[in-house]
Structure formats: C-alpha cells, structure tokens
Write a structure and sequence with these properties.
With about 80 residues, this protein is an alpha+beta fold. The protein has three helices and three strands.
Length: about 80
Amino acid sequence: MGRFALPTGPWLKTPEACAALGISRDTLRARMHAGLLEAGTHWIATGTSEKAPKLWNIEACMAAMQQWSAPQPPSRGKG
C-alpha cells in the first residue's frame, strides 16, 4: 500500500469545520462539489462511500476561501 503525506494543520469533522470557517454545511459541500476544495488537500473521506464522513483541513480551507470572491448581483441592463 502506498503512503502519502497529508497537509499539516488541524483536521476537523464537518460540523466543527463549518463553525471554524463561518459557513454552512451546504456551502462547504457546494464548494467541494464545485472543485474549489480538493480531496487530499482540503478534505479527506473517512470511508469509501460517497456519503462517508469527511475531515477538513482548516488551514488549507481558509487559504482557499481567501481566493473566493463574493457573489455579484445580476447586472441590470438599460432597457
């Protein structure tokens, strides 16, 4: 079995990660599914199923969040 190194820093369960990051579980999951949070860097699954609990690297997630921009309201065309 191969070995790999995980990023250092605290790894938290989803509820604790959401609290530490100040975002909801839905937002965290949406960012993961959008590819903004990557497996092995920002999160790891604790099992093999798709719904397996995840552990989140808080330092890596915070660094990624600094790169995100706030949603912009739709532009209103002059009509």
